Protein backbone atom coordinates (compact mmCIF):
# COMPACT_ATOMS: atom_id res chain seq x y z
CA UNK A 1 0.00 0.00 0.00
CA UNK A 2 1.35 3.44 -0.92
CA UNK A 3 1.91 6.11 1.69
CA UNK A 4 -0.86 8.13 0.05
CA UNK A 5 -3.34 5.32 0.65
CA UNK A 6 -2.10 4.78 4.21
CA UNK A 7 -2.66 8.43 5.06
CA UNK A 8 -6.09 8.43 3.49
CA UNK A 9 -7.02 5.31 5.45
CA UNK A 10 -5.77 6.97 8.64
CA UNK A 11 -7.98 10.01 8.02
CA UNK A 12 -10.98 7.78 7.36
CA UNK A 13 -10.28 5.73 10.49
CA UNK A 14 -9.85 8.83 12.66
CA UNK A 15 -12.90 10.48 11.07
CA UNK A 16 -11.51 13.91 11.84
CA UNK A 17 -8.67 16.07 10.57
CA UNK A 18 -7.69 18.65 13.22
CA UNK A 19 -6.13 21.83 11.84
CA UNK A 20 -4.72 25.09 13.15
CA UNK A 21 -2.03 27.73 12.85
CA UNK A 22 -0.35 29.67 15.64
CA UNK A 23 2.50 32.16 15.44
CA UNK A 24 4.08 30.74 18.58
CA UNK A 25 6.43 27.82 18.02
CA UNK A 26 6.15 26.70 21.64
CA UNK A 27 2.36 26.93 21.54
CA UNK A 28 2.22 24.98 18.29
CA UNK A 29 4.33 22.22 19.82
CA UNK A 30 2.14 21.99 22.92
CA UNK A 31 -1.02 21.77 20.84
CA UNK A 32 0.49 19.03 18.67
CA UNK A 33 1.53 17.05 21.76
CA UNK A 34 -1.91 17.49 23.32
CA UNK A 35 -3.71 16.32 20.19
CA UNK A 36 -1.42 13.30 19.96
CA UNK A 37 -1.93 12.38 23.62
CA UNK A 38 -5.71 12.58 23.05
CA UNK A 39 -5.46 10.04 20.23
CA UNK A 40 -4.92 12.05 17.04
CA UNK A 41 -2.73 10.30 14.47
CA UNK A 42 -3.31 12.53 11.43
CA UNK A 43 -2.99 16.30 11.71
CA UNK A 44 -2.90 19.39 9.49
CA UNK A 45 -0.86 22.49 10.28
CA UNK A 46 -2.06 25.44 8.21
CA UNK A 47 0.06 27.82 6.16
CA UNK A 48 -1.62 30.96 7.45
CA UNK A 49 1.14 33.10 8.88
CA UNK A 50 4.74 34.22 8.57
CA UNK A 51 5.93 31.55 11.01
CA UNK A 52 4.21 28.65 9.25
CA UNK A 53 7.28 27.21 7.54
CA UNK A 54 9.75 27.46 10.45
CA UNK A 55 7.10 26.22 12.87
CA UNK A 56 6.28 23.30 10.57
CA UNK A 57 9.94 22.32 10.39
CA UNK A 58 10.08 22.28 14.20
CA UNK A 59 6.88 20.25 14.42
CA UNK A 60 8.41 17.79 11.99
CA UNK A 61 11.43 17.43 14.31
CA UNK A 62 9.15 16.84 17.30
CA UNK A 63 7.05 14.36 15.34
CA UNK A 64 10.09 12.38 14.22
CA UNK A 65 11.49 12.26 17.75
CA UNK A 66 8.32 11.65 19.76
CA UNK A 67 5.43 10.60 17.50
CA UNK A 68 6.65 8.32 14.70
CA UNK A 69 3.12 7.03 14.00
CA UNK A 70 1.68 10.52 13.38
CA UNK A 71 1.04 11.79 9.84
CA UNK A 72 1.82 15.51 9.67
CA UNK A 73 0.38 17.47 6.76
CA UNK A 74 0.28 21.09 5.66
CA UNK A 75 -2.84 23.04 4.76
CA UNK A 76 -3.70 26.29 2.96
CA UNK A 77 -1.38 25.45 0.07
CA UNK A 78 -2.46 27.61 -2.88
CA UNK A 79 0.67 27.91 -5.03
CA UNK A 80 3.38 25.64 -6.46
CA UNK A 81 5.98 27.63 -4.52
CA UNK A 82 4.25 26.86 -1.22
CA UNK A 83 3.85 23.22 -2.20
CA UNK A 84 7.55 22.85 -2.98
CA UNK A 85 8.59 24.63 0.23
CA UNK A 86 6.59 22.34 2.49
CA UNK A 87 7.39 19.19 0.53
CA UNK A 88 11.05 20.06 1.05
CA UNK A 89 10.25 20.52 4.76
CA UNK A 90 8.90 16.96 4.90
CA UNK A 91 5.12 17.23 4.82
CA UNK A 92 3.25 13.93 4.55
CA UNK A 93 0.31 15.38 2.62
CA UNK A 94 -1.11 18.63 1.24
CA UNK A 95 -4.47 20.28 1.88
CA UNK A 96 -5.72 23.29 -0.09
CA UNK A 97 -8.69 25.66 0.11
CA UNK A 98 -8.87 25.75 -3.70
CA UNK A 99 -8.27 23.59 -6.77
CA UNK A 100 -4.94 24.58 -8.31
CA UNK A 101 -4.02 22.08 -11.06
CA UNK A 102 -0.34 23.04 -10.78
CA UNK A 103 -0.30 22.02 -7.11
CA UNK A 104 -2.16 18.81 -7.97
CA UNK A 105 0.43 17.91 -10.58
CA UNK A 106 3.28 18.46 -8.10
CA UNK A 107 1.62 16.16 -5.55
CA UNK A 108 0.65 13.54 -8.12
CA UNK A 109 4.15 13.42 -9.56
CA UNK A 110 5.59 12.30 -6.22
CA UNK A 111 2.59 10.19 -5.19
CA UNK A 112 1.52 12.52 -2.36
CA UNK A 113 -2.04 12.82 -1.07
CA UNK A 114 -3.56 16.14 -2.19
CA UNK A 115 -6.85 17.27 -0.63
CA UNK A 116 -8.31 20.27 -2.51
CA UNK A 117 -11.11 22.50 -1.29
CA UNK A 118 -14.26 22.76 -3.41
CA UNK A 119 -17.47 24.76 -3.19
CA UNK A 120 -19.26 23.84 -6.44
CA UNK A 121 -19.94 20.75 -8.55
CA UNK A 122 -17.72 22.18 -11.27
CA UNK A 123 -14.80 22.48 -8.85
CA UNK A 124 -15.40 18.92 -7.66
CA UNK A 125 -15.31 17.72 -11.27
CA UNK A 126 -12.01 19.52 -11.90
CA UNK A 127 -10.56 18.09 -8.67
CA UNK A 128 -11.51 14.60 -9.86
CA UNK A 129 -9.76 15.21 -13.18
CA UNK A 130 -6.60 15.76 -11.15
CA UNK A 131 -7.12 12.55 -9.15
CA UNK A 132 -8.28 14.00 -5.83
CA UNK A 133 -9.03 10.97 -3.66
CA UNK A 134 -10.51 13.09 -0.87
CA UNK A 135 -12.16 16.48 -1.43
CA UNK A 136 -12.58 19.12 1.25
CA UNK A 137 -15.97 20.85 1.14
CA UNK A 138 -15.22 24.44 2.11
CA UNK A 139 -16.63 26.58 3.61
CA UNK A 140 -18.88 23.91 5.12
CA UNK A 141 -20.73 26.35 7.37
CA UNK A 142 -22.06 28.11 4.25
CA UNK A 143 -22.80 24.99 2.21
CA UNK A 144 -24.22 22.76 4.96
CA UNK A 145 -24.93 19.00 5.04
CA UNK A 146 -27.71 19.46 2.47
CA UNK A 147 -25.08 20.29 -0.14
CA UNK A 148 -23.43 16.90 0.37
CA UNK A 149 -26.77 15.12 0.24
CA UNK A 150 -27.64 16.91 -3.00
CA UNK A 151 -24.43 16.23 -4.92
CA UNK A 152 -23.11 12.89 -3.61
CA UNK A 153 -25.02 10.85 -6.21
CA UNK A 154 -23.48 12.99 -8.97
CA UNK A 155 -20.03 11.90 -7.79
CA UNK A 156 -20.58 8.31 -6.74
CA UNK A 157 -17.66 6.92 -4.76
CA UNK A 158 -16.02 10.31 -4.14
CA UNK A 159 -14.90 10.93 -0.56
CA UNK A 160 -15.89 14.26 1.00
CA UNK A 161 -14.72 16.04 4.15
CA UNK A 162 -16.45 19.27 5.29
CA UNK A 163 -14.27 21.91 6.90
CA UNK A 164 -15.42 25.13 8.54
CA UNK A 165 -18.14 25.31 11.16
CA UNK A 166 -18.31 21.62 12.08
CA UNK A 167 -19.30 21.44 15.75
CA UNK A 168 -18.27 19.14 18.61
CA UNK A 169 -21.88 18.15 18.97
CA UNK A 170 -23.50 14.75 18.52
CA UNK A 171 -26.43 15.97 16.44
CA UNK A 172 -24.24 18.15 14.21
CA UNK A 173 -21.76 15.36 13.56
CA UNK A 174 -24.47 12.75 12.94
CA UNK A 175 -26.09 15.10 10.41
CA UNK A 176 -22.82 15.45 8.48
CA UNK A 177 -22.06 11.72 8.43
CA UNK A 178 -25.64 10.86 7.53
CA UNK A 179 -25.34 13.28 4.61
CA UNK A 180 -22.46 11.18 3.28
CA UNK A 181 -19.13 12.59 4.48
CA UNK A 182 -16.27 10.25 5.42
CA UNK A 183 -14.53 12.61 7.87
CA UNK A 184 -14.71 16.19 9.13
CA UNK A 185 -12.13 18.95 9.29
CA UNK A 186 -12.03 20.52 12.76
CA UNK A 187 -10.38 23.90 13.23
CA UNK A 188 -11.41 26.72 15.55
CA UNK A 189 -14.33 24.76 17.00
CA UNK A 190 -11.72 22.43 18.50
CA UNK A 191 -8.55 24.53 18.71
CA UNK A 192 -10.07 27.85 19.71
CA UNK A 193 -8.44 31.23 20.12
CA UNK A 194 -8.79 30.82 23.89
CA UNK A 195 -7.01 27.46 23.78
CA UNK A 196 -4.11 29.08 21.91
CA UNK A 197 -3.92 32.38 23.78
CA UNK A 198 -4.50 31.01 27.28
CA UNK A 199 -2.80 27.62 26.92
CA UNK A 200 -5.95 25.67 27.77
CA UNK A 201 -4.38 22.34 26.90
CA UNK A 202 -6.41 20.24 29.36
CA UNK A 203 -9.58 21.62 27.77
CA UNK A 204 -8.18 20.81 24.33
CA UNK A 205 -7.34 17.27 25.43
CA UNK A 206 -10.85 16.70 26.79
CA UNK A 207 -12.55 18.20 23.73
CA UNK A 208 -10.39 16.18 21.35
CA UNK A 209 -11.25 12.94 23.16
CA UNK A 210 -14.92 13.93 23.08
CA UNK A 211 -14.83 14.79 19.37
CA UNK A 212 -13.17 11.47 18.49
CA UNK A 213 -15.72 9.55 20.55
CA UNK A 214 -18.69 11.40 19.05
CA UNK A 215 -17.36 10.80 15.55
CA UNK A 216 -17.07 7.06 16.18
CA UNK A 217 -20.69 7.07 17.29
CA UNK A 218 -21.75 9.13 14.27
CA UNK A 219 -20.20 7.05 11.50
Automatic annotation (TrEMBL):
Sorted alphabetically, which InterPro entries does this protein's record hold?
Aldlse_KDPG_KHG (IPR000887), Aldolase_TIM (IPR013785)
Entry's Gene Ontology molecular function annotations: lyase activity
Q: Report keywords, A-Z.
A: Carbohydrate metabolism, Lyase
Q: Keyword check for Lyase, yes or no.
A: yes
Q: What pathway annotation does it carry?
A: Carbohydrate acid metabolism
- Coiled coil regions, renumbered to chain: none
**Belongs to which family?**
Belongs to the KHG/KDPG aldolase family.
PANTHER family (alphabetical): 2-DEHYDRO-3-DEOXY-6-PHOSPHOGALACTONATE ALDOLASE-RELATED, 2-KETO-3-DEOXY-6-PHOSPHOGLUCONATE ALDOLASE
Listed under subunit, the entry gives: Homotrimer.
Q: What is this protein called?
A: Bifunctional 4-hydroxy-2-oxoglutarate aldolase/2-dehydro-3-deoxy-phosphogluconate aldolase
Provide the species name. Answer: Pedobacter yonginense
